[in-house]
Specification:
With 575 residues, the chain is of the alpha/beta class. 46% of the residues are buried. Helix 3 packs antiparallel against helix 15 and helix 10 packs across helix 17. The protein has 24 helices and nine strands. A five-stranded mixed β-sheet has the order 5-6-7-8-9, with helices on both faces. It is elongated, with a radius of gyration of 31 Å. It has two domains: 384 residues, no CATH class; 124 residues, STAS domain (Transcription Regulator spoIIAA), CATH 3.30.750.24.
C-alpha cells in the first residue's frame, strides 16, 4: 500500500529524476550538517538524551518526506515542541513522551482525513506569533542552567518556580562553563554577520569545544560538562558515555522507562492522562508544519496540499516513537536552508537523514566532546530567532486591541502555565475573535422611507430592513433585536435578505420569534431576495406559514406587495 501511495503521487519518479539528483544530494548534505547539532540540542532541551533527537531526524526525515505533500520541507525535532515535551518527560519519562507522540500522530491523520488542514492555515497572526514568542522565553530560561554551569536544586514544574531556583543558584555559577558559552555565543553572532556558507553553529560548536579541550589541558581548575559526561548508555551490558554508535533500534514505546525508570506500560489511564498533551503536540505540529509549508512554497514556487501534509506528518509521528524518536514536524529554518541549497525533491530530506545516520555510526565519540554550555548557547540563539521579537513589538504598536489581547494571552499562558492550556486558550480566543468580527459585519439597517432608496415612493406604514451578512448563532440575536420593537403605525415590514449567504438554527429560532411578534401586532411581513437554500430552511422551520407573509424576489416587487397589503389586496402565498 505504501509503495502504491508513493507511486500514485510520483514521489519515486521525482527522487530518481536524473536532472535533479545532484543538486538534491548537495542540498541534503548541507541540511544534514545543519540538522546534526540542532537535533541533539533540541532533544537535550526536551529532557531526553541527544541520540533521541538524532533518531527523530533520521526516521521523520525519511517517512514524512515520502508520505507528506511538501517536496522540500525537512522534518525533525523542533524548538516549538520543547515547552510541551519537557514537562511530559519530567512527569512520565521517555516512555510517556513516546506514547504521547504516537497519539499525536493519530490525531494528525484524523485532522488530515477530516480535511481540517485549510482551517489550521487560517490561525490568526497574533496566535502564530504569541506561541513561538512564549516558547522562546521558556527555552532560553531552561538553558540558563547549562549556560552558567549552575547547580539548580529540583524545583516545581512552573515557570516561576524554575526562574526562582535559577536565581537562587546564580551566585554559584561556574566561570569555565560561562566562558565556553560566551565564546560559542559570540562566534554564532559574529559568523552570522559574515554571511559565510559554512553554517555558523558548526563553527561555533567547534570553537566552543576546542576552548573546552584546551582549557582542561592547560588551565588549572578548568572543567566543563560535555555530552559524554552528562549522558550514559548501556550496550551489551557494558556502560558507555555520550551517544551510542548504533542505528535506530526498533522499540515499543510502552516498554520504555517512565519517570521512575521502570517500563511505563500501556493502560487506558495512561492514554487518558496523556491525551491533552497529545492534542497540544498535534495542534502545534500541524500549525508549525503548515506555516513551514507556506514559507517553503513561497521560496520554491511549489504548492503543498495541507491535508495530505497533515497525514504525512501523522504517519511520521506514528512511526518515529517505535525507533526512539520524539515528536517531529517540519522545521522552517532547515526547510529554508534546503531550498536555498537547491533542494527540490524528497531526495534532499532522505540524504539529510542519511548524513545524520552516518554521523552516529562514525563520529559518535567525537560528538561526546561537545560542551553542554556550547549547546546551551546554540539554543539561546535558536530561542531568539524563533521569538519573533520584531513582529511581537510591531503587533503591540499597531494592532487592534483584541488582537493584542490574543497575542498577550497566548504568550503569557505559554510561559506561565503550559502549552496545553495555551493551545486551547489561543484557539478559543481566535474563534471568539472571528465570531465577534462576523457579528460586527452582520447587521440590520433600517432603510429610511423618506429617501428614494428603491426608486419608489414608500409609505410611512411600510418599513424596509436590509439585513447584511451571515445569520449564525453569534450574529442572529444582535442583528434581529432591532425588529423586536417597531412604530405602532407600521403595518408591513419588508426584510431584504439579498445579502444573507447563510442562516443557522439559532438564527431561524430568532426569525421565528420575530414572525410571531409581528403577527401578534397585526403587521404583515414580506421576505425579499431569499436564496433557494435559505428559503428551504425557512420552509422546513415553518417560518413561511401563516397569513400576511409573502416571498418576493426583488425590492420593487416587495414594495408592491406591501402596498397591496395596505390596501387589503390578497398577495401570493409564501409557500
Amino acid at each position: 500500500m505504501t509503495l502504491t501511495y508513493l507511486l500514485q503521487y510520483g514521489v519515486l519518479k521525482e527522487i530518481f529524476n536524473p536532472t535533479s539528483i545532484r543538486p538534491n544530494l548537495l542540498a541534503g548534505l548541507t541540511v544534514g550538517i545543519v540538522a546534526l547539532p540542532l537535533s541533539m540540542a533540541l532533544a537535550i532541551a526536551s529532557g531526553v538524551p541527544p541520540q533521541h533527537g538524532l533518531y527523530t531526524a533520521i526516521i521523520a526525515g525519511i517517512v514524512i518526506a515520502l508520505t507528506g505533500s511538501s517536496r522540500v520541507n525537512i522534518a525533525g525535532p523542533t524548538a516549538a515542541f520543547v515547552v510541551i515535551l519537557l514537562p511530559i518527560v519530567e512527569q512520565y519519562g521517555l516512555g510517556g513522551l513516546l506514547i504521547s507522540g504516537l497519539m499525536a500522530g493519530v490525531i494528525l491523520i484524523v485532522l488530515g482525513l477530516l480535511r481540517l488542514g485549510t482551517l489550521i492555515e487560517l490561525v490568526p497572526y497574533p496566535v502564530t506569533i504569541g506561541f513561538p514568542s512564549g516558547i522562546a522565553v521558556v527555552i532560553a530560561t531552561t538553558q540558563l542552567k547549562d549556560f552558567f554551569g549552575l547547580s539548580v536544586e529540583a524545583s516545581g514544574h512552573s515557570f516561576v518556580e524554575r526562574v526562582g531556583a535559577i536565581v537562587q543558584a546564580m551566585p554559584g555559577f561556574h566561570w569555565a562553563e560561562l566562558l565556553v558559552a560566551l565564546v560559542t555565543l559570540s562566534t554564532l553572532l559574529a559568523w552570522n554577520r559574515l554571511g559565510s556558507r559554512i553554517p555558523s553553529h558548526l563553527v561555533a560548536l567547534f570553537i566552543g569545544t576546542m576552548v573546552a579541550l584546551l582549557g582542561s589541558q592547560f588551565i588549572a581548575g578548568f572543567s566543563v560538562t560535555t555530552i559524554a559526561s552528562a549522558f550514559e548508555y548501556t550496550l551489551d551490558g557494558e556502560p558507555g558515555y555520550g551517544i551510542p554508535p548504533l542505528l535506530p533500534q526498533l522499540m515499543l514505546p510502552w516498554q520504555q522507562p517512565g519517570a521512575d525508570g521502570a517500563p511505563i506500560g500501556l493502560s487506558w489511564e495512561m492514554i487518558s492522562s496523556l491525551f491533552g498533551a497529545a492534542v497540544a503536540i498535534a495542534m502545534l505540529g500541524a500549525i508549525e508544519s503548515l506555516l513551514c509549508a507556506v514559507v517553503s512554497d513561497s521560496m520554491a514556487g511549489t504548492r503543498t496540499d495541507p491535508n495530505r501534509e497533515l497525514i504525512g506528518q501523522g504517519i511520521g509521528n506514528i512511526v518515529v516513537p517505535f525507533f526512539g524518536g520524539i515528536p517531529a514536524t517540519s522545521a522552517i529554518a532547515r526547510s529554508a536552508t534546503n531550498v536555498r541549497a537547491g533542494g527540490s525533491t524528497p531526495l534532499a530530506s532522505i540524504v539529510h537523514a542519511l548524513v545524520i545516520l552516518l554521523a552516529i555510526l562514525v563520529a559518535a565519540p567525537l560528538l561526546g566532546y561537545i560542551p553542554m554550555a556550547a549547546m546551551a548557547a546554540l539554543l539561546m540563539v535558536v530561542a531568539w530567532n524563533m521569538s519573533e521579537a520584531r513582529h511581537f513589538l510591531h503587533i503591540l504598536k499597531v494592532a487592534p486591541r483584541h488582537d493584542i489581547m490574543v497575542l498577550l494571552t497566548c504568550f503569557s499562558l505559554t510561559v506561565l502555565i503550559d502549552m496545553q492550556v495555551a493551545v486551547a486558550a489561543g484557539m478559543a480566543l481566535a474563534s471568539m475573535l472571528f465570531i465577534k468580527r462576523m457579528i460586527e459585519l452582520t447587521g440590520v439597517k433600517l432603510v429610511n422611507a423618506h429617501q428614494d432608496h428603491v426608486g419608489l415612493d414608500v409609505p410611512n406604514e411600510i418599513m424596509i430592513y436590509d439585513i447584511n451578512g451571515p445569520m449564525f448563532f453569534g450574529a442572529a440575536h444582535n442583528a434581529l433585536k432591532t425588529l423586536l420593537s417597531i412604530r405602532k403605525d407600521v403595518k408591513v415590514v419588508i426584510l431584504d435578505l439579498t445579502d444573507v449567504p447563510m442562516i443557522d438554527m439559532t438564527a431561524m429560532v430568532a426569525m421565528q420569534s420575530i414572525v410571531h411578534n409581528l403577527r401578534r401586532q397585526g403587521v404583515g411581513l414580506v421576505f425579499c431576495g431569499v436564496g433557494a437554500e435559505i428559503r428551504l430552511k425557512l420552509k422546513h422551520a415553518d417560518i413561511l406559514k401563516g397569513q400576511n407573509i409573502y416571498l418576493k424576489r426583488t425590492i420593487h416587487d416587495s414594495v408592491a406587495a406591501a402596498r397591496g397589503m395596505l390596501g387589503g389586496l390578497p398577495g401570493e402565498s409564501a409557500e
